[in-house]
Amino acid sequence: xxxxxxxxxxxxxxxxxxxxxxxxxxxxxxxxxxxxxxxxxxxxxxxxxxxxx
Amino acid sequence: xxxxxxxxxxxxxxxxxxxxxxxxxxxxxxxxxxxxxxxxxxxxxxxxxxxxxxxxxxxxxxxxxxxxxxxxxxxxxxxxxxxxxxxxxxxxxxxxxxxxxxxxxxxxxxxxxxxxxxxxxxxxxxxxxxxxxxxxxxxxxxxxxxxxxxxxxxxxxxxxxxxxxxxxxxxxxxxxxxxxxxxxxxxxxxxxxxxxxxxxxxxxxxxxxxxxxxxxxxxxxxxxxxxxxxxxxxxxxxxxxxxxx
Lengths: 53, 245
Description:
The complex is a heterodimer. By secondary structure, chain A is mainly α. Chain A is about 80% helix and about 0% strand. Chain A has one domain. Chain A is built from two helices and no strands. Chain B has one domain. Chain B contains nine helices and no strands. Chain B is globular. The relative contact order of chain B is 0.18. At the A-B interface, helix 2 of A face helix 2, helix 3, helix 4, helix 8 and helix 9 of B.
């Protein structure tokens, strides 16, 4: 297990790359979801107000 | 040829519904492929005879670099369709793609820098491959900033579209930079058609990751497109009727 984490001495380079990739993948999914949900809420509120600005 | 299906597809209500139904069919396979690719790349592939375990960075670096260009191509193609045929949905696709592409371009640059340190002895060099990829990030930022700076949506769409299309010249520069100029960056591993210079047990996790990232982009694009449609169509009757249900 320690060997695996050490990555032949390159662990300090390999793991940050995979962590960054995980962060970017997670951000994309979460940001897109949040954007959609917020736009939907705003549209619903707008419709409830009868379309007034 | 009957084009009504295309016009139907390009109508916001249909696109909104289809995107919502399609997104999970791309997203879940993408997640499964990425998990399998990470496992294969980190645990199953043997260490490289020259780079040792540092080469495993390729499993996140190459797919993000691939997406940085695929997303730009998608964004520019959608922008061109929006400009030429005045299809509003195409501009929405273009707007939805930009932040995704920017994030994967940043990831490609960051993982490339981290990979460069142990292999080249430096985080960064101003050579053609790295510089043209950095310019790609600036192009994404420019397209997004230009769109955000113009209040009128149609004008913002057109201005962003023109910049996105002009920036396409950078894509072949990125791809061929490793052949046109001397560079520290290694040449392409996969695009040498028919003869990829990688052993099979190293290669399959990379192909799985490339496919996984590509499907993932599709899923995220569809969700962002839905948000974009909601914002653009907020006063449309179909949307009000749909939300009231």
